[in-house]
Design goal:
Blueprint: H1 16-28, H2 30-33, E1 46-51, H3 57-68, E2 72-76, H4 90-97, E3 103-108, H5 113-120, E4 125-130, H6 136-150, E5 157-161, H7 168-179, E6 183-187, H8 196-204, E7 209-212, H9 215-218, E8 224-227, H10 238-244, H11 252-255, E9 263-265, H12 286-304
Parallel strand pairs: 1-2, 1-3, 3-4, 5-6, 5-8, 6-7, 8-9
The chain binds phosphoric acid mono(formamide)ester.
Residues 55-58, 138, 267-269 line the site of phosphoric acid mono(formamide)ester.
Keywords: Pyrimidine biosynthesis, Transferase
Domain Aspartate/ornithine carbamoyltransferase Asp/Orn-binding: 155-303
Catalytic activity: carbamoyl phosphate + L-aspartate = N-carbamoyl-L-aspartate + phosphate + H(+)
């Protein structure tokens, strides 16, 4: 049972059948991911983890996924301790690391870097985030989390809230969720709207997408509220960041107007856009979403390696 692609560069590169295959595989890994059942499925396999940008969840969940399946990892989290610091190109780094392992997970600040890596690599490349580009394994775990909560990834009303300009997770999720006939509400502060090319592209494909600045007005309609932080590190001007940084906050008072089975997701890390009082409410599913990242990445590794 293989995927139609060797590399996971963007969600667009996956067919609906690929997505279903990944999700049915992921369902099988729950006990192994919790450490309740041993596995040697990927014994002897080595995953290269090349992180040129900080990460907690993506890096550690990939490491956890392969180790729970009996494999191991090599890699770096700080490019300054690799020969990149001496000026080695990404292409040469990939051509080297592919000689040491069976698949590479790459996070890099430059958009298009994962595609470039896949062009020079003979082993699978999994994009773990390329600047403001794509983060397809996050998109898969987001959709998988929706499926776990609603039993389906179709015909839902999904609100994407926050920094929709710089947030790569929401770009990928907008394409992915609308492919499955969900109605999208894109809600942002002024200046951080979903890029026009994405909105227009989705509208031209006949997908339902509604732009809004008013969360209170949209919230009662939603099945899923997908919150993202403002991406401070992508602002070149600190004063521009300060203007928008407190523009939305999810708290229990606000959630009183939500449907009782509405669910809040967040790719994390959060800063202060969801107040801690929400964490123990029935709405909060973002830490379950973190666990879903392990089973989805186990599924990907088992299908690709
Ligand atoms: N959601 C996500 O990509 O988190 P990290 O940046 O911690 O990997």
């Amino acid at each position: 049972m293989k995927l139609t692609t060797q590399d996971i560069i963007s969600f667009k590169g996956l067919t609906n059948e690929d997505v279903e295959k990944i999700f049915s595989e992921a369902d099988k890994f729950e006990k192994i991911a919790k450490g309740e059942k041993p596995s040697e499925l990927l014994k002897g396999k080595i995953l290269g983890t090349l992180f040129f940008e900080p990460s907690t969840r993506t890096k550690l969940s990939f490491k956890s996924a392969i180790q729970r399946l009996g494999g191991s990892t090599i890699g770096f989290s700080r490019p300054e301790v690799s020969s990149v610091a001496k000026g080695e190109t990404l292409a040469d780094t990939i051509r080297t690391v592919e000689k040491y392992c069976d698949a590479i997970v790459l996070r890099h600040p430059q958009m298009g870097s994962a595609k470039l890596a896949a062009e020079v690599s003979k082993i699978p490349i999994l994009n773990a985030g390329d600047g403001a580009g794509h983060h397809p394994t996050q998109t898969l775990l987001d959709l998988y989390s929706i499926r776990k909560n609603f039993g389906s990834i179709r015909d839902l009303q999904i609100g994407l809230l926050g920094d929709l300009k710089y947030g790569r997770t929401v770009h990928s999720l907008a394409y992915a969720a609308s492919r499955f006939e969900n109605k999208l509400y894109v809600i942002s502060p002024e200046g951080l709207e979903m890029p026009n090319e994405i909105v227009n592209d989705l509208k031209n494909k006949g997908r339902e997408i509604i732009e809004s600045y008013d969360l209170k007005e949209v919230l009662p309609k939603l099945d899923v509220l997908y919150v993202t932080r403002i991406q401070k590190e992508r602002f070149s001007d600190a004063s521009e960041y300060n203007k928008v940084k407190d523009s939305y906050k999810i708290n229990l008072e606000l959630l009183e107007s939500a449907k009782s089975n509405m669910r809040v997701l967040h790719p994390l890390p959060r800063i202060d856009e969801i107040e801690p009082e929400v964490d123990s409410s029935k709405y909060a599913k973002y830490f379950d979403q973190v666990f879903n990242g392990v089973v989805v990445r186990m599924a990907l590794l088992s299908l690709l390696m």
